[in-house]
Amino acid sequence: MGGLAGGEVDAAVAPATAPQAGQHAHHLYEEAGVLLVRRGHPAAGKPVTREVWASLRHVDIHLALGRGGIGHRAARAWLAGERLAFDVAVVVPSFLAAAVVAANSDYACGLPRRVAEALAPVLPLTPLALPGPPMAFSIDLVWHERTHLDAGARAFRELVMAALASPRPASARGRRARA
Questions:
Q1: Which residues, other chains included, contact 110 with Cβ-Cβ below 8 Å and sequence gap of 6+?
Q2: pTM of the entire structure?
């Protein structure tokens, strides 16, 4: 057993799901996914039709202990719901690695909007308009009961919450218990 319950991770910023037994969650913000390619990519500056999407090769990201996690499953479910194929060219362990590969190849990578905006000044990437609505999801701070009352862990969580918090839309209030 690993991650939050096993002690390898004290807190995680992750797409919202129903908390598992022994876990706590605090809503941070709403996020959207963006699709990025290198500047000068053949698909850049053109409408991304389903045919263009199908021609793209993608960088897949396995952030969670070397495998796809909550965000990966959410992205796969969104793709399935939009009936979009996902041709994986390479799998990497981080958002930064995905962006670097996309910036230096003809592969596309999907990233959270905030990550893409942070990388924009240093990597030659350009966003593509998706064929359909953008993938949108809530982001939570999640932690295990073993650190819930620890003063240091609580102070850390409060810093993260203050740095990343945004007002919650009225339609989403009440969905999750506040920490």
A1: 33, 34, 35, 36, 58, 61, 75, 135
A2: 0.78
The 8-class DSSP code of residue 82 comes to T
pLDDT digits (tens, 9 = 90+) for 36-82: 999 999 999 888 888 888 899 999 999 866 677 777 788 888 888 88
Structure tokens that stand for 96 in this block: 């930064």
SS3 content of the chain, % helix, strand, coil (to 5): 35, 30, 40
In this predicted structure, the answer to whether residue 8 has a pLDDT above a threshold of 90 is no
The DSSP 8-state label assigned to residue 64 in this structure reads B
Closest CA to 59 of 39, 80, 89, 37: 89
Helix residue ranges per DSSP H, the chain: 3-6, 50-55, 70-81, 95-103, 113-119, 145-148, 151-164
Structure tokens at 54: 């199908």
